[in-house]
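Reopening: UPK3B protein still failing for me.
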Amino acid sequence: ALLPYVPHVPPAALPGKLTATTFALERPCCVFDRHANASDTVWLVVAFANASAAFRNPPSRADVPLYEQLPTAHSYMTLEAAAAAYACSAPSPAVLRVGGDTACGGQGGRDPCNGPLPSPGPYRVKFLVMGCHGPKAETRWSDPILLRRGTGGTAVPP
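Support: Ran it again with your exact input. Result attached.
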C-alpha cells in the first residue's frame, strides 16, 4: 500500500537540524497503525535524490541495502524499528536523527547502520513497512533534503 504520508524535516528550528553529515526528520506517528502488525518492522530508506526512482523495495530483510553500499547502490536502509514504535500510543521523541551513528562503517556485519552521510546530497527518504513475507506498505518519498556544508560544529569561542 502506498501511504499518503510524506517524510519531512521539522519546520521548527532545532539545533543541528541539518549539518554536513546528518539531518532530523519528524517522527511519523500513527501513520502505520492500520497497515502493520505487531511482528512487522518499519525501516527508513535513504537514497540520493536522483536514485530514488530506481530504488526497489527489498523482498526480504536479507536483501536490505546496507549503509556501506550507499556509494555504489545510491541507497541504504536504516533505523529499523518495531511498527509499535510509531503507533499513536507509543511514547517517543518527536524527531529521528538520520546519520547520527559515527561508529558505522567497516563493521562487516549485516546489522543496519545509521552512519554519517558522505556528501551534501540531495537525499530523499521514505518509510517502508516490512512483514515476514516482504514489503507491506510505504510512504511517499520526501522532497529533496540538502545537507549544509561547513557546519561541522556549533561551538562558539569564549
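The two ends are 53 Å apart (CA to CA). If you still see a failure, please send the error message rather than a screenshot.
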